[in-house]
Design brief:
Layout (H helix, E strand, L loop, with lengths): L1 E5 L11 H12 L5 E7 L2 H6 L4 E6 L8 E7 L5 E6 L1 H4 L17 H16 L11 E5 L5 H8 L6 E5 L7 E2 L20 E2 L2 E3 H8 L2 E4 L2 H6 L10 H9 L3 E3 L25 H15 L8 E5 L8 H13 L3 E6 L3 H13 L4 E5 L3 H10 L2 E4 L9 H7 L3 E5 L2 H6 L7 E3 L4 H15 L2 H12 L5 H15 L1
Parallel strand pairs: 1-2, 1-6, 2-5, 6-7, 7-11, 11-12, 13-14, 13-16, 14-15, 16-17, 17-18
Antiparallel strand pairs: 3-4, 4-5, 8-10, 9-10
């Protein structure tokens, strides 16, 4: 099978969220089953990261989309990348989606329509004369026009569209239709129209051959009004036709505390003295006081979805009970400021680092006792998997992938209602467990024994591809 895997970010080069980690790991896990090639916009970090790029084709302007070329390159381990080169759209400072201040690029509709159009052209064999796709796997709203462009150009190439987070939809003014080359006839309730605006993600939901999301629980949740973000109707229709699946994400094999080079001291299950050295290292690096109490970690995007407000609300209670909190992440200014204010009030008990660094995150998972994940919704979540592998017990809301990957009372703690009392109840259970060393030892061993390999996920995707072609 020749699979074109389309993504707007990948941790090989640039990462904003969990999609980047998935986009690096899943194509590699799929190489046992298919000829998988990744297509990504030509951001500066991508161009720096691929040294063997060569041009395989060029495309002329389409509608009001600019001309572009497509380069072919490879990573050191042989993963094949197609890179959409259009300097005016992608070679900018900032993130894939916005400037350094966090504001979205005003032309994101053009940027990701061009990317989607490029992927469709490549899939149809119109760019690289030596390769065409049997199936396109598109991810999130930035790639969601790919099934649409294939449909509108009468290309009979099956597509799988994966929803990593339905809350991010790519909604633009309907005046974008003609400039983006989207047929006016598609602007209706059964097409790309969403409350009289153009919805990129709805194009994926409507035109893709099959929809997936990143856990079975989230696949059920998004067919309801509570989690469907206004799209529950079309999602329920696809589910009724057996065209919506939940396939749980995995994590890559580098998340092993016995071999992870980022840690001060590698350790395995039962090596609690060695693990304690990592805790001391984290406390030292973040300026926290030496303590015999539990260390809680928040490693997340600092946004409303992640329940950061609940952590802020509960921070003083954690400190008063003898706990400490270390935070790393970036997100909404109001949460960043509130966390920094909490640090100012309790500088030896609360440490906050605005930003994200993978090495630092690994150290925190290895040194913390508990990982805070009070997300309002969580399609899959990766931090709870990382945490368990490194012996940090996650505390999460019973939703999405958290419900599927945390065994309540065995490998972590779950609470049922997103509220301060619900979250505090789980915090109390965590403090109680921390005081019972045998119980803590049992739970840590169980958590570290959890297997979150990509192998099973890759088998599920490969089977879905075969049934779709």
């Amino acid at each position: 099978m020749r699979i074109l895997f389309a993504t707007p970010e990948v941790s090989d080069f640039i990462q904003v969220g969990g999609l980047a980690a998935v986009s690096a790991a899943l194509p590699r896990a799929l190489r046992d089953f298919a000829d998988v090639r990744v297509i990504i916009p030509g951001y500066p970090a991508v161009l720096r990261g691929l040294s063997d790029l060569k041009t395989v084709g060029r495309c002329q302007p389409f509608a009001a989309l600019p001309a572009f070329e497509i380069n072919l390159g490879h990573t050191v381990d042989g993963l094949t990348y197609y890179v959409v080169r259009c300097p005016e759209l992608y070679e900018r400072d900032g993130t894939p989606y916005g400037d350094s201040r966090g504001a979205d690029w005003s032309d994101n509709n053009v940027r990701f329509a061009t990317f989607s159009y490029a992927a469709a052209q490549l899939a149809m064999g119109l760019v690289d004369k030596e390769w065409a796709a049997d199936l396109v796997h598109a991810n999130d709203w930035q790639c969601a026009l790919i099934p649409g462009y294939l449909e509108w150009h009468y290309a009979h190439i099956p597509t799988v569209f994966t929803i990593h987070n339905l809350a991010y939809q790519g909604v633009f003014d309907r005046s974008s239709l003609a400039p983006l080359g989207i047929p006016e006839a598609s602007f209706n309730i059964d097409g790309v129209e969403f409350y009289n605006r153009l919805s990129f993600i709805k194009a994926g939901l409507v035109y893709a051959s099959h929809l997936t999301t990143v856990s079975q629980t989230y696949a059920r949740e998004i067919t309801t009004a509570e989690f469907g973000c206004g799209l529950e109707g079309v999602l329920q229709q696809r589910a009724n036709r057996n065209q919506l699946s939940g396939i749980l994400n995995g994590i890559d094999e580098t998340w092993d505390p016995r071999t992870c080079s980022s840690l001060l001291q590698p350790f395995g299950a039962g090596d609690w003295a060695e693990r304690a050295l990592n805790a001391d290292d984290v406390r030292d690096q973040f300026g926290l006081a030496v303590s015999r109490g539990p260390l809680f970690a928040l490693v997340a995007r600092l946004v409303h979805q992640k329940g950061v407000d609940l952590v802020i609300e509960s921070a003083q209670a954690i400190v008063d009970a003898g706990g400490q909190i270390v935070v790393t992440g970036k997100g909404e200014p109001r949460f960043e400021e509130a966390l920094l204010e909490a640090q100012t009030r309790s500088p030896r008990s609360i440490a906050v680092k605005i930003g994200f660094d993978d090495v630092e995150a690994r150290k925190i998972f290895a040194g913390s006792d508990f990982t805070l994940m009070p997300s309002r919704f969580e399609p899959c979540g990766l931090s709870q998997m990382y945490a368990q592998r490194f012996g940090s017990l996650p505390i999460g809301h019973r939703t999405g992938g958290l419900a599927e990957t945390i065994v309540d009372g065995e490998t972590g703690f779950l609470f049922d209602h997103v509220s301060a009392p619900g979250f505090l109840g789980s915090l109390c259970r965590a403090f109680s467990t921390f005081g019972m060393k045998d119980r803590l030892d049992h739970m840590r061993r169980a958590a570290m024994a959890q297997a979150f390999s990509w192998n099973q996920s890759a088998k599920s995707y490969a089977a879905l591809y075969r049934s779709s072609i």
